[in-house]
Amino acid sequence: MVVAEDLHRSFGTGERAVHALRGVSFEIRRGELTALKGRSGSGKTTLLNLVGGLDSPTRGSVTLDGTDLAGLDEKGLLAMRCDRIGFVFQSFGLIPVLTAAENVGVPMRMRKVAAARREERVRTLLALVGLADHAEQRPGELSGGQQQRVAVARALANDPALIIADEPTGQLDSETGRSIMRLLRAVVRSEGVTVLVATHDPALMELADRVVELRDGRVVEPAE
Length: 224
Hints:
Helix 4 packs across helix 5 and helix 5 packs parallel to helix 6. This protein is an alpha/beta fold. It has 7 helices and 10 strands. The protein is globular. The chain has a 6-stranded mixed sheet. The protein has helices at 44-51, 74-83, 100-110, 115-128, 144-155, 174-191, 202-205, and strands at 2-11, 18-28, 33-37, 59-64, 67-68, 85-89, 162-166, 194-198, 210-215, 218-219. Helix 6 links the parallel strand 7 and strand 8. It has 2 domains: 1-84 and 160-224, P-loop containing nucleotide triphosphate hydrolases (Rossmann fold); 88-159, no CATH class.
């Protein structure tokens, strides 16, 4: 599903250059939940940005579902992110003035999905994440865990092949964090989607199919 080969990413030039990634290679199988672990500054977010097509490597390549991201122009990358990748962020990233249902529907509006089909998909996804009764509530009326569930539903809106989650439990208490990881685990099984999640919580890693560890921009402990 995802193949990263010899990824390097540097910021700046000369002696002041920061080498965020130093030759990272790994694969993610289709329908698998992979946890990416590492301390702050290890390169996790940089790697997620490269896999998600939000940034380009200094050297190396990322292939997503058979497509080399380096071969896509900005329009192609935008289409890839819209159609094939869903994103879940630590800060939830919901639009405050929109209801839960409206937030979930945003990606489908961008693709101009017909209203009837969009509303049906929103209902299905909110039920999937356990929020069928909260469709008309706005983010400020929801708990942190509920907001993140809305974010997961939104990430699934366009039926992506891959979901990328950057510390999705970072602002949640431990039990709520576990519930979000269990939800991602369930999504992998029910939707057949592939998930790459960055986390530093060992308890959450136990729910993953595989763990890839980054240290100082290098893979040091990929686990089957």
